[in-house]
Amino acid sequence: MTTSNRVKFVVPGDDPIQIQGSPHLERLEPYGDMVVYTDRPMTLEEKLDRAKGASIILNSRGAVTWLEEALSQLPNLRMITTFGIGTDSIDLEAASNLGIVVSNQPGRTAAVVAEHIFGLMFAVAKRAAAQTAELKAGRWGRMENIFLQGKTLGIIGTGNIGTELARLANALGMNVIAWTFHPSPERAERLGVRYVELDDLLRQSDVVSLNVRLSAETTKLLRERELALMKPGSLLLNGGRGEMVDMAALVSALNSGHLAGAGLDVFDVEPLPPDHPILSCQQVVLTPHMGDQTPEGIELLNEGAVDNVIAFLEGHPQAVVTR
After folding, report:
1. Residue of 289, 299, 314, 316 with catalytic role
2. Active-site choice (68, 270, 296, 323)
3. 299 is an active site residue
4. Which end of the chain, N or C, is surrounded by fewer C-beta atoms within 10 Å?
5. Active site residue 296
6. Which fold has domain 110-286?
7. pLDDT tens-place string over residues 289-298
8. Nearest CA-CA partner of 282 in 267, 261, 266
9. CA 191: distance to chain centroid?
10. At what angle do helices 295-313 and 110-125 cross, to 10 degrees?
11. Tens digits of per-residue pLDDT, 42-94?
12. What residue ranges of the chain are covered by domains with CATH 3.40.50.720?
């Protein structure tokens, strides 16, 4: 590739570290020149300045958003790749109108994320955070744990992560029910689940896990009404997106004792502000949107992002997301 047609790649805000120092970046050297910014842009102007002249953006952090206002000012931009399945940081309609290809990574780290959600379930059920806090405060008390074998797990969304979560739950000896937009008997048999209506899932489940994609249909999927339908003493897990739960209603359900706990990796505001009401709840286990952040998961996503870029440059774009 000659100097005149070398591509400019930009990683606009790699904080926390995702792809800095990854050997996968070396695979792009024959195609063009890479600029990696190790902190997040704080203003639209700073973001545009970083992306100026770029043909391809490797958007390693979803907190760096690409909405129409920014995309319309980047005439050279041809492609954006994400480092996960979520594309809510990108205005897909604007990208499509501007001829910008957006590629994501569906299912690449499903096993990693499902294991994290499974870990949250155990941590909440065994009161790990609350009992640790009590011991650190010098109190040797008693809290009843929750036995999970034989209990019902309700999985909302049976994509790649939900599928893996069902496999783990079945191996533990849980009864698995599920809800999806497109259920079928064949899919239920393959996954080892029983599909039910959403309200029925909420009523029957001892543990409810949110694993559906964020969309207009799933925003605030669980509000006060839906949380009230959940079994008294049940648990809620959210490894999807924070916007799918009415957080004020969740805090109320936890503080009232209706729900016995929640394990959350995602929040309605990220980073989580220090005065967020969820932090006042005792029976919660919280992680900072890091379900896929193991060494294996990070490199799988780095590899996938570079694979997406090379596929695009070689004329056969993959994992293309449409509006």
Report:
1. 289
2. 270
3. no
4. N
5. no
6. Rossmann fold (3.40.50)
7. 999 999 999 9
8. 261
9. 21
10. 150
11. 999 999 999 999 999 999 999 899 999 999 999 999 999 999 988 989 999 99
12. 3-107+295-313, 110-286
